[in-house]
Amino acid sequence: MLGKSSPIPDHILEDDKLKGRVTTGLATAASSALTKSDWKFAAEKGGYSDSLDGHRRFYKSLDFGDDDYEGNVLTLVKYLFDEMPLEFVELFNHPKVQARLMQRDPALVDLWRGEADPVLVAVAHAFDEIKAVSTNIDLSQYASRINAALPGDPKQAIGATKDMLEAVMRTILHRTGHQDVDDLDFPGLTTHTFNALGLTEASKPSTEGEGLVRKIASTARKMILTANELRNHLGTGHGRNVDEEEDLSADDASMVASSGLILAAWLIKRAGI
Question: How far is the C-alpha of 22 from the C-alpha of 206, rounded, in Å?
Fold first, then answer.
């Protein structure tokens, strides 16, 4: 158990989400920045060389560029976080790792220093918006799935976000008396929902402000449709050859999820149900 004497910042120790963000981010940076010699020097200095030498796959996966290399690094990083926090901090501050973080993930460095990660702030705000409309439509099960999936399972987060948006739109149409809702595919469902809420350009807006809101709504509709396309391409529910799968970062998934949560709450408020 890590105590207050740990060199790891308290705000990270006390938040499992931040721990996940830091450990996965560090694993990604270290696996791409450090050579075999770097690892041997760091492990010898930190006193965990036996762990790496005894790990049958660690150096072999590095040597051959195997798919499990980054996962092996993540296992080591998590071990250091829990059992050898001083060495975890040493690895985080390794010059090559810091250079890679500043190049590819500067938000993680800010997070370590206690500065707010704007993506995490946006996600937290989005969850608050969903709570605010829970008496209208209870989306807690979807919010919980999204929350549980981030940051470790970005594709699951995308899938849960799409499912939530679909559930919101079907519920809105059902409650406003529309028929044959269950037969609509996702694009048709989105179009019917925006038509029902007066968010399309089917009629002339009564005010200039309403016209501008409709333009924003048009962009929102595209975001919803694109989230569905992303889920079909990268998310859960569509198995494909493992050699053809694409990666999705936790930050990108968080952006999509926070946008989806905000849009879901907005549609519910707009429907007035």
Answer: 50
Contact 202, 221 (CB under 8 A): no
Each residue's pLDDT tens digit, 132-185: 998 899 999 999 999 888 877 888 999 999 999 999 999 999 998 888 888 899
Distance CA 206, CA 52 (A): 69
Q: How far apart, in Å, do the first and last CA atoms of the chain sit? A: 48
Phi and psi torsions of 116, nearest 5°? -65, 135
- pTM comes to 0.60
Q: Which residue has the tokens 């690094």?
A: 73
Sequence-distant (6+) residues with CB within 8 A of 185 are none
Distance of CA 56 to the CA centre of its chain: 31
Encoded amino acid at 255, one letter? M
Residues 238, 232: Cα–Cα separation, whole Å: 6
Residue 269 to residues 33, 45, 240, 246, 247, Cα–Cα distance (Å) = 47, 58, 38, 35, 34
Rounded Cα gap, residues 183 and 22, in angstroms: 44
**Is residue 199 within 8 Å of residue 217, measured between CB atoms?**
yes
CA distance 103 to 113: 17
Q: Are 192 and 184 in contact (CB under 8 A)?
A: yes
